[in-house]
Write a structure and sequence with these properties.
2 copies of one chain form a homodimer. By secondary structure, chain A is of the alpha/beta class. Chain A has helices at about 1-5, 10-20, 25-30, 40-50, 55-65, 80-95, 110-120, 135-145, 165-180, 205-220, 245-255, 270-280, 315-330; strands spanning about 70-75, 100-105, 125-130, 150, 160-165, 185-190, 265, 290-295, 310, 340, 345.
DNA sequence: TTGAAAGCGCTAACAA
DNA sequence: TTGTTAGCGCTTTCAA
């Protein structure tokens, strides 16, 4: 009550006056550096307590030219929880190191991404993390301003740090599981145009996942069959449930092309969820009649049946991105570091051995 | 390139020197206020452009005693996407009004919540939004510091603003749908102890949803049957897939208690997802044999079959919370405002008329 | 129409 | 061991 009505907020100056010392001394006890006599320290500490002093981080930042803040550019959290989990990881690492994090959502728009970076630069953040960057030039913007940048998932800018996953190997990991279970008629469910690459060159993420599928089959001596791929031209979906509808439609295509399909590798949980819907509608049992493997491990465990999936350590990727940015901050040499995280296969209930 | 190697960053002072005017004049053209002669303005604008000047928001905040920043306390995004969507809404409203948002995750821990608020206060944010607050005293902390606070979903502090939903009415909305379809043997799937209230008094959210179920049945002249409730003592689940496992287990209990159940109202999508898993394992078709209604509309559309659910307008709730905080900022009277958002029933494929 | 100057709250030489 | 002081970059009276 008393606090609330006291309009004047305590400053280092008012505390100094109250304790009968200089502001420099207050600053010293505040940060525990420099020499302060025991008796003086106590007096200052009492004054600090009595006045309800709270350090003004804004003034401190101006003076120190450090905000102890990380800026986080989000590619949009909806509909993919991937970003949310990475964000939580970044936040975790930041707070553990005394940093705070500003977030900015691009909603997938490059112009907004630029605006977000500009905004962060204006606020003098100490580092910027992109999950996921849309344009390399926007990443470069931060670097040109002398601020370390870290990209998560996809690297667009050669001078930024990065935290990635080996998509090719991960995809093979999922395939190996299916192959080990005895499957050979395995369909591939990718983002629109993953297979045809119609919309310009595939980005490496999609390409790598598809390559993992192709090479795994090849190495097992199984020819890649056209009827196990969706070649479009199927329209890019635009809607609230991004990815699910695509999965639903593509699964139908796959089924039409090869009614004897026994397994499917999906390049995201979203796509796999859509596939599960189509299968459910047809009364086709998973994994009894067909096995499904997803990718990401976002909400895979919530589906029916719980989905076997290739897990990306999203939270950990966020943590490492945050730590990397902080590490870069103090390293004048600004090395370009790339950290690679390991994926893991999470076996749940959507895969089973092929029954002959 | 030239920019990058120029270590000296442009300040209002360097711009003033370059344009041959005072810093006051630069400030005037920067903000378009005060009188500036056309010719002078042009000279300053050129200097601004040539030097790549970027306003220092830190210095501005110190001087103006306004950071144009909102602090967002998150109750943890995992495993419930509810928080992520509200967060995006807050961010949207903030950016639309020129604000930035700092985020802080409490992970459901009241002590961390306190630390988060303290951190925000130290950084002099202009407002704090809680999604969802854990302790009223932490909300009060912000208010005592003279900063507006807004609570989303649950209100714990009488002097804070709030954005809520009518849980009782929403629950009845879901029930009405089931009743309209002709169901009468309707089970209730709530959080652990929603029915017994064993862990102390139920918070109003859980209580209201359960009341909606009870009263809807009563008003339809259907007695509330014990076998349609889960009375525990079933252990509170602790794990990565919070809620789903509970839904799975409780659905089994419901099935054991009444094998002739024809419908279930779940108090969250998470619980409904778990129910779907149990049903799938038993080969019980949804909605042919049993209808399910969820709550929230987070990932309901991704389940198989797509889940009919009572939708909370999460993004909109975030937007309104952000706008409310900003509005409160400039209102000296600091009125206590509560905004109530309407839920809506989203009918998908998990509900169907009772077949006699 | 413009400029001088006083700070916002804090830190860190430097001096005492 | 402590204090004095000069700013960090910006805004805003007030005077010219």
């Amino acid at each position: 009550m008393a606090q609330a009505s006291t309009r004047a907020v305590a400053t280092i100056k008012s505390v100094a006056a109250r304790a009968g010392v200089s502001t420099a001394t207050v600053s010293r006890v505040l940060h525990g550096n420099g020499y302060v006599a025991g008796e003086t320290r106590e007096r200052v500490e009492a004054a600090l307590r009595d006045s309800g002093y709270r350090l003004d981080a804004v003034a401190q930042a101006l003076r120190r030219q450090r905000t102890i803040t990380l800026g986080l550019i989000l590619h949009g959290i909806l509909p993919n929880p991937f970003f949310a989990e990475v964000a939580m990881g970044v936040e975790h690492a930041a707070v553990a190191n005394g940093f705070n994090v500003l977030m900015f959502n691009t909603d997938g728009d490059a112009e907004r991404e630029r605006a977000g970076v500009e905004s962060f630069l204006s606020r003098r953040v100490d580092g910027v993390i992109f999950t996921t960057a849309l344009r390399g030039e926007n990443v470069q913007l931060a670097i040109d301003a002398g601020i370390p940048a870290v990209e998560v998932e996809r690297r667009l800018c050669k001078s930024a740090g990065a935290v990635v996953v080996d998509n090719y190997a991960s995809s093979r990991q999922g395939m190996q599981h299916l192959l080990d279970l005895g499957h050979s008629r395995i369909g591939y469910l990718g983002e629109p145009d993953t297979v045809t690459g119609r919309d310009g060159p595939l980005d490496s993420l999609r390409q790598d996942r598809f390559e993992g599928y192709r090479r795994a089959l090849e190495d097992a001596g199984i020819p890649v069959a056209d009827e196990h791929l969706v070649r479009g031209p199927y329209p890019l979906e635009r809607g609230a449930w991004g990815g699910v509808q695509t999965g639903r439609d593509y699964m139908q295509v796959l089924l039409d092309q090869d009614p004897d399909l026994t397994a499917v590798l999906a390049s995201s949980d979203l796509l796999a969820a859509g596939a599960l819907q189509t299968l459910y509608a047809h009364g086709i049992r998973v994994p009894d009649q067909i096995s499904i493997v997803g990718f990401d491990d976002t909400f895979a465990g919530r589906l029916a049946p719980p989905l076997t999936t290739v897990r990306q350590p999203m939270f950990e990727m966020g943590v490492r991105a945050g730590e990397l940015a902080i590490r870069l901050l103090d390293d004048e040499s600004r090395p370009v570091l790339t950290e690679s995280c390991a994926t893991s296969l999470v076996v749940r209930e959507s895969t089973a051995p092929l029954v002959a």
